[in-house]
Amino acid sequence: MLFVNVLLINLLIAMFSFTFDSVQSQTDLVWRYDRYALIREYFDRPPLFPPFIILTHVAELIKLILRHSPKADRPTMRRRQAKIFQMIATSREVDRDWSEFESYATNLYARTIVSGQPSSSAALVPSTARQEATQITLDQMSTSQVSPNLDMKVITDEIASIKRALGDLRTHSEEMNRCMQWMIDAMERVKMSKEPKPKLRSARTTIDLQPVDE
């Protein structure tokens, strides 16, 4: 019985997860349909609230009877009763901006369908992150044009750094040789070994490093 309960709970969790993933993958589409339904309901709902809504229904019934009566002027009644939900721009500039926005949104949706990528309402407005990414790309393109000079400068700096490191190693090796020589001389004075003391080679080589111009 416990095993069956665990299986049922897992099945319930899987169903909820599947539903959540399905809704999340189509969030923008669901939001658009819900927004349309809300606006449509607000536009088509009667002006009165229950129980006074019966008056609105009676008025609609009377209009329907008049509309189907043989004496009614059908074109005039049709024009008078037609409901059109339309947003009218206050100026030509606003109308032009709306047209450009609709064209941009249509092109974006078409590209999204072709590429198979999910669309979102945030993609209609350029974000700061996309602007920064574009600026970084432009900076990289401008930097790539002067890359040969930068590469030569980097190589020169690396060579100078290697020469300085070799000089430091040579100095450290000479100090180590002096310390070892001092220890060997001290051990020879106290006669700690019958073997002759070894000879230490100098840290300097035949190739002398040239000073680096800073």
Write structural notes for this entry.
This protein is mostly helical. It folds into two domains: 2-128, no CATH class; 129-214. Helices cover 70% and strands 0% of the residues. It has seven helices and no strands. The longest helix has 43 residues, at 147-189. It is elongated and about 140 Å long. Residues 119-127 and 205-214 have low confidence and may be disordered.
Assign an overall shape. elongated
Radius of gyration: 43 Å
- Most strands sheet: none
Number of helices: 7
Q: Helicity, in percent? A: over 70%
Protein name: Ion transport domain-containing protein
Signal peptide: 1-25
Keywords: Signal
InterPro entries: TRPM
What would the keywords be for this entry?
214 residues, mainly alpha, 70% helix, elongated
In short:
The chain is an all-alpha fold and 214 residues long. It is 70% helix and 0% strand. The radius of gyration is 43 Å and the shape is elongated.
